[in-house]
Amino acid sequence: MTQPFDAQHPADLVIHGARVLTVDPQLGEIPNARLVIHKCLLVEVGPDDPSKPMPPARRTINLTGRVITPGFVNVHT
Q1: Residue 6 pLDDT
Q2: Domain 11-50+57-68 belongs in CATH node 2.30.40.10
């Protein structure tokens, strides 16, 4: 998990509720994740803990029931 997002300005995008499949053995699969994107960078990825307030964001998307995967690229085409 990355460090919780702590900024004086709102994040550009917060995505929450989705199941995230990572290629990081330490993170593995995160069944109910929160992703925070700020200035085109993924600055936080980890469990969506309901006890922690949602960070302020310009846009928030609830993707409950959806799956997020890394951008797999087929280099053979």
Answers
A1: 65
A2: yes
